[in-house]
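Homework help thread (please don't just give me the answer)

Our assignment gives two proteins as sequence + structure token strings and asks us to describe the second one. The first is just a warm-up. Here they are:
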Amino acid sequence: MSRRGKLWFRVAPVLMSLAALATPVAAADLVIALNSDPDSLDPMMGGSAVGRVVFAGFCDKLIDITTAGGFQSQLATAWTWSDDNLSLTLNLRDGVLFHDGTAMDAEAVRANLDRYRTNPASLRRGELSAIDNIEVIDALTVRIVLAQPFAPLVSALADRAGMMMSPTAFTESGENTGLAPVCSGPFAFVERVAQDRIVFEKFADYWNAENVFLDQVTYRIIPDPSLRLINVRSGDVDIAERISPNDIVSIEADSSIQLIEGPSIAYDQILINTGNGPASDNPVGSIPAVRQALSLSLDRAVINEVLYAGRFVPSIQPELIGTAYFDERFPVTARDVDRAKALLAEAGVANPSLTLMVSNNSTSTQLGEMIQAMSAEAGFQIKLLALEPSTWSAAAEAGEFQANIGIWSGRLDPDGNIFPWTSCKGFLNRGRWCDAENDALLMEARQTTDPEARKALYAEAMDIYMAALPQIVLYHYKSLWAARADLKGFVPYPDGLIRLQGVSVGTN
């Protein structure tokens, strides 16, 4: 293993002593520090937020997003809805190759989308369930025919469901596709060492190669945010994700590194179990007014200031303020303990108790403690249960929780922020809240591409959601990275991903 491969995981005292001796890396190589090890590197199977960061470096999508939160071309140069919204025609970029030399053409697109939507193991099936069939018009034109209109399709194709892999490779490798993934992005897979590193090298035949200034990219797994920052300061890492807001002041005072800040559509929320088994049988799970009281007992501004140095965006709804579908009727509310107490009295509930499940990292635990202390002033009795992420996830899926704190990476299309969480059969609706009228509105909003019509439908659905409050949104994130001072060309996007096109470091 190289010096770069060994340094980060040494014990902190040794790492600190070596940091001063470390030298910057070659200008044509980039090292990125991640907060955790991704799951599968097959877009069909990937489900982790950190996995999307890695995908951005090697797996181009049919459609990308813009810095302003719109959509722009990537592998597809244009897309057009039919008048009845029952088909979406894509015009593909000419001359694109996968890393194994296979052509990225209409047949490849059909093979990928069919794999995503029909494979029993696919996590993309729900996103593409509206597809009836896929027609190859010619080598560079493909038409996606829908069984019913589905406006969020464009957004889905700007995420993992739109990541194109070599059909040659995934046909040969089958269920092992994620072990040596073959896409068409700027970098090609070299190796992966679990819990340590993932290495890629520049793909010489990349369609946008003139905008790639790096020869190799290594993603290193460094769970501790303080160690990620130490490695940036030492020069052993070029850019680190998910920097603690508490480190902002020290970063801004250090001329050898830089803070990069960007908007984020990701948000944290408290998910309430309202109907998923016996754990939902309590006043918080069964009475909306009690959930309203819990929300009012929280001071989001103080949480933001204490935990996130005031950099995050307090909120009570899934849509980020300033975006197209933000509902201005529901701005963030100030804390109101008296009103919270009154709601509990009206509901006939004194001192409601609740077990709140959190991940066992320092930030999540501290957030849970703040919620515990603030809500106690209104009469709530909250017990914290800190679990490893895998245990947390298993308990959530099984309905073995009363409430939990979780992050959602967010989607540009409002359907992706609302439907999975609040539709009766939504795959993220672990609390099993279900409202038939809400479901009907969300389904109708999926079937029109008219933005104004969709806004009106989501407004009606938001009235139902805000009254029932099956989830309590706390704030939207800001994406925070620490990078070497000589890193150039990195542009933040609202999805928080690290796009490597245009990025250089050192004298390169």
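The one we have to describe:
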Amino acid sequence: MRLIGAGSLVYLIAVAFVMSGFAQSDQRPLNVHDGQEVFRFDTFGDEQLWTNVLRMHDVLPSVTPATALAVGLKVDVEALPSSVIAALKAGKVNLNDPAVTLDLLRLNAVVGVKGTFNDFKQLTKVGITCALCHSSVDNSFAPGIGKRLDGWANTDLNVGAIVALSPALDAATKAEFMAWGPGKYDPRHHYFNGTSIVPLNSPSVPIVIPAIYGLRGVGFETVTGDGPISYWNAYVGVGQMGGHGSFTDPRIGVFIQQTPDLVTPKLPALLDYQLSLQTPKPPAGSFDHQAAARGKQLFRTEARCATCHEQPNLTDVSSGQDRHVPLLHSPAEVGMDPTYAERSATKQYRTTPLRGLFQHPPYFHDGSAPDLLAVVEHYNRLFRLNLTAAQKADLVEYLKSL
């Protein structure tokens, strides 16, 4: 049974108000290069949060590269000059020296983190970009150091541990952030209004940082389908990253007005770049081709996966009567914990578009499935499919092939 969270007319009226300026179109000429620059390097003026409020510019000078890598920060090897690469290869760079962290920031080599220095080489400002959470590296040089992989979820990134380093937060808030763990973030815990952090919900309910490749044609990025991709980019860019801009959504009680708006004008180019990011192919030898072929057949028949995971994007979120209204499912229908959904605008969950699954365990919005077999087991129980062990194994191999 397919469920839409609100009547189409009511939903469209509410969403039209919320998302004016955030609409996306696959017909617009691509502006991929500009979008890449925005994605990788634009802080949207969020130094107002990370510097003025959280005071991370006071923290980073004491953080060693080893510590930074341990909490999931990545280094873009292509931003390093040959002399630094040679020194790293020769073991002449002390990764326990905080001064090296500042050197990497000066080179703009720390993925998703941007530092500003004065004439005395002192770090005066810190900001973050979209790439912090939604890029990784290929580890081609060393663990955590390599070429950028834009669109990949940074499953190693411990955002909570990083933010908890701020001297501006109280002990209770730090403890809540520290509980998130690697690869998770709670976008409904709080928002930043331009001057202060405003509580939204407590206790915190973190969700898995998503991969953002393979989104062309999907239309809705978030697990609750609150709006199209640019809606979420705006919400995160302003309310979570702390960018200097405006965002309003009365459905969740968020009202932020800041001028000039450094976020909204950049959303079209950012969307173009996101839509250009292709789903990575699974590594050679990472799945059994014959088993995957059997699993594909099961996916379409006995396992009934294709009922919701429809072609071509393996989701039904845009298959309702109006493609601008997400087709969603109640938590009970899909056997999910309702807590996070209840804090969203729709109160329901979207069918996940299955793509590049090899790259980002754990699975489900809350990371409650540690591997793909756990995903299959969940639906086998929920829908009483009575799949055999061999059938479950074949389904897993097919999912690994996507």
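TA reply:
I won't write it for you, but here's a hint about the kind of observation we're looking for: The chain is about 35% helix and 10% strand.
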